[in-house]
């Protein structure tokens, strides 16, 4: 019985020690709280805890709102600021309760350390500038009941990388995502109608944008300076390419202007310096001032007879423009041509060739094609052929020219051995390791370098990958020649190469 009592006491002691050693789980402490909105009978309340989480909930069962605050994005708060504004730098996450249906203007303006946001599925409305200048916000998923993203909502959120757009979204407002420089993609939902002015202005990291066919209006500068965009598919419903919509999109290599467009406005494609060709659809009547200025790689353009006005400097500094395929007669062309040649007289460039009465379905009538200089679509390498696309300057028929492979060049590997001294006193205690850079000079190696001992004392070894030389303990004093074969694996341009070098190890 005594033994059983001792066992029980021991077990209790172990349990007590374990309890003492268990980590203490502490709940986050509230550091501030208050009201931030109202409904008929209940208040909308907020709490901020010491972990940086701002939580907003409606006190009752009815739907709650977060009040409007401050309505000027470029002034300082003086009054009517959010109650947590003085503590905004402590906020790292925001959790909005399930029964909140509306968030007012500038609610989280300049919460610069805010990284995470959880929005409720019932949310129906967000005001202007809700997350304006939240420069550490990385991602956000917008609930499907939201129909409008208003002006400045995510403006200057410079770390924002991804956005899940609502399925029922109808419009994106002015500068809603302006200067979101890390935003990678915008997949806009079907049913959307309007992309506002400057909506994605200077989203320089955006590589893809999906614009549904339901969109009927894209505002001025909507995609201006989105320099990573390479292609954009504009909806067929558009009737106007507005002022500067794609200006400064220097990475844009391809664009299809929708067939229902009747006007290409001022600066529409200004600075699209990677575009090499443009086709203007048959319904276009006017091309605005500077519409294609600084399209420095533009080589040819197709202009239909429907165009009756071309604005000032429409093709200013398009110094590679060589051919215009015009759907009308020379007489028609003489009435609108001045803008095409304006400011080209002092440039050292060849004149523009105009091909009249051109139609997109015109038969190929060339007996002898006149090929242009071509555009390389794949560079040749040492082992593989390359390809160049040629275009006939008269009928636009294309052909592929094979660019022969370059062949492998001799590997320029160069090596030179050195003499390395090893102290005998150190060698008596432990083996000594010598870096290959101290034992040999290796230059101009193309490809991965490997090493192999060819000849030498058995107490001296060479590492195959690193080339490190190990001199084992208690090697007697003396000079030991060591032959090493050094190989360079080569690459797409250079063949394999090898050199044998003699290194002298002096033990003194």
Task: Fill in the keyword field for this structure.
mainly beta; Leucine-rich repeat, LRR (right-handed beta-alpha superhelix); Immunoglobulin-like; five-stranded mixed beta sheet; four-stranded parallel beta sheet; flat
Question: What's the quick description here?
Answer:
The chain is mostly beta strands and 508 residues long.
Overview of the molecule:
- There is one protein chain.
- The protein has five helices and 38 strands.
- By secondary structure, it is mostly beta strands.
- The strands form twelve sheets. A five-stranded mixed β-sheet has the order 1-2-3-5-7, with no helix packed on it. A four-stranded parallel β-sheet has the order 10-12-14-16, with no helix packed on it.
- The longest helix has 20 residues, at 2-21.
- The protein is flat, with a radius of gyration of 36 Å.
List the helices and strands and how they pair.
Layout: H1 2-21, E1 30-38, E2 43-49, E3 53-58, E4 64-66, E5 93-96, E6 100-103, E7 116-118, E8 125-126, E9 139-141, E10 148-149, E11 162-164, E12 171-172, E13 185-187, E14 194-195, E15 208-210, E16 217-218, E17 231-233, E18 240-241, E19 254-256, E20 263-264, E21 277-279, E22 286-287, E23 300-303, E24 309-310, E25 323-326, H2 330-336, H3 338-341, E26 353-355, E27 375-378, E28 386-391, E29 398-403, E30 414-417, E31 419-422, H4 424-429, E32 432-434, H5 436-439, E33 440-443, E34 449-455, E35 460-462, E36 469-471, E37 478-488, E38 497-507
Parallel strand pairs: 3-5, 4-6, 5-7, 6-8, 9-11, 10-12, 12-14, 13-15, 14-16, 17-19, 18-20, 20-22, 21-23, 22-24, 23-25, 25-26, 31-38
Antiparallel strand pairs: 1-2, 2-3, 27-28, 28-29, 30-33, 32-36, 34-37, 35-36, 37-38
């Amino acid at each position: 019985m005594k033994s059983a009592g001792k066992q029980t006491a021991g077990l209790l002691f172990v349990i007590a020690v374990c309890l003492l050693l268990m980590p203490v789980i502490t709940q986050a402490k509230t550091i501030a709280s208050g009201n931030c909105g109202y409904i008929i009978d209940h208040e909308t309340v907020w709490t901020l805890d010491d972990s940086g989480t701002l939580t907003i909930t409606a006190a009752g069962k009815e739907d709650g709102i977060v009040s409007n605050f401050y309505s000027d994005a470029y002034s300082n708060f003086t009054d009517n600021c959010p109650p947590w504004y003085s503590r905004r730098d402590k906020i790292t996450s925001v959790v909005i309760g399930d029964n909140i249906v509306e968030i007012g203007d500038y609610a989280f303006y300049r919460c610069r350390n805010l990284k995470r946001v959880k929005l409720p599925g019932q949310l129906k409305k967000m005001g202007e500038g809700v997350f304006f200048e939240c420069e550490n916000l990385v991602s956000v998923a917008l609930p499907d009941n939201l129909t409008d993203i208003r002006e400045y909502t995510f403006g200057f959120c410079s770390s924002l990388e991804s956005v899940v757009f609502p399925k029922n979204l109808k419009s994106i407002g002015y500068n809603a995502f302006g200067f979101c420089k890390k935003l990678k993609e915008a997949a806009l939902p079907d049913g959307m109608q309007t992309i506002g002015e400057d909506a994605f202005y200077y989203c320089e990291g955006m590589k893809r944008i999906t614009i549904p066919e339901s969109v009927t209006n894209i505002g001025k500068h909507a995609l201006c300076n989105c320099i990573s965009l390479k292609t954009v598919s504009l909806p067929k419903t558009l009737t106007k390419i507005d002022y500067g919509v794609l200006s400064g999109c220097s990475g844009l290599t391809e664009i299809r202007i929708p067939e229902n467009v009747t006007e290409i406005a001022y600066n529409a494609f200004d600075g699209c310096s990677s575009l090499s060709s443009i086709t203007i659809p048959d319904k276009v009547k006017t091309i605005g001032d500077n519409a294609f200025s600084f399209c420095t790689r533009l080589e040819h353009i197709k202009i239909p007879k429907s165009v009756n006005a071309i604005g000032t400097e429409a093709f200013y500094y398009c110094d590679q423009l060589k051919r215009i395929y015009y759907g009308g007669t020379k007489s028609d062309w003489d009435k609108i041509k001045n803008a095409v040649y304006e400011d080209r007289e002092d440039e050292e460039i060849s004149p523009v060739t105009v091909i009249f009465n051109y139609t997109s379905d015109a038969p190929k009538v060339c007996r002898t094609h006149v090929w242009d200089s071509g555009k390389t679509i794949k560079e040749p390498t040492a082992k593989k052929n390359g390809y160049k696309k040629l275009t006939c300057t008269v009928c636009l028929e294309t052909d592929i020219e094979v660019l022969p492979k370059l062949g492998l060049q001799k590997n320029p590997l160069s090596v030179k051995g050195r003499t390395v001294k090893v102290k005998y006193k150190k060698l008596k205690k432990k083996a000594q390791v010598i870096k290959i850079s101290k034992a040999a000079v290796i230059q101009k190696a193309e490809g991965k370098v490997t090493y192999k001992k060819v000849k030498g004392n058995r107490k001296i070894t060479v590492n195959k990958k690193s080339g490190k030389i190990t001199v084992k303990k208690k090697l007697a004093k003396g000079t030991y020649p060591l032959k090493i074969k050094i190989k360079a694996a080569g690459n797409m341009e250079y063949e394999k190469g090898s050199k044998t070098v003699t290194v002298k190890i002096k033990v003194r």
